[in-house]
Design brief:
Blueprint (H helix, E strand, L loop, with lengths): L1 H17 L4 E6 L6 E10 L2 E9 L25 E9 L2 E9 L4 E10 L3 E7 L6 E9 L1
Antiparallel strand pairs: 1-2, 1-8, 2-3, 3-4, 4-5, 5-6, 6-7, 7-8
Length: 140
């Protein structure tokens, strides 16, 4: 009986960990389908953040976010925190912002997990209808 209970606990723990948003995700450009880099999503003080930890294109690895505003202006894109302040709300992460380092613009951000290996990241202005989505792939 105890063994069955232990197996059940381990099974459900594995399921809940596989559905976490935290970890490294390969970013894929929604317009070109090209793999761009890697973002690590983490929690800090109860909020969700994400920073660029790898850039695949050699020529872009040392670029700075010249068009960003505030504290992010002229910071290296590699290491830049582009997702800030999201919270989980009924399986959806939202309530924060995402920055596009190409143009420096900030957008509202909404993220949902699609299966075990995909993350749908939507940046939008005003309401989610006015935005675009990217599908990121979980990295192990």
């Amino acid at each position: 009986m105890k063994l069955k209970l232990l197996i059940a606990i381990l099974f459900f723990t594995k399921i809940s960990f596989s559905q976490t948003i935290f970890g490294k995700w390969k970013t894929v450009d929604d317009e070109t389908g090209k793999e761009k880099g890697m973002v690590e999503i983490y929690e800090h003080k109860g909020k969700v953040y994400g920073k660029i930890v790898e850039i695949f294109e050699q020529e872009h690895r040392h670029q700075k976010c010249e068009k960003c505003e505030g504290d992010d202006k002229n910071k290296p894109i590699l290491g830049l925190v582009i997702i800030k302040g999201l919270t989980k709300n009924e399986g959806v992460y939202d309530g924060g912002k995402i920055v596009d380092p190409k143009n420096g613009k900030k957008y509202h951000c909404k993220m949902t997990i699609d299966g075990k290996e995909k993350l749908i990241v939507r940046g939008y202005i005003g309401i989610p209808l006015f935005g675009r989505s990217q599908t990121w792939i979980r990295q192990k």
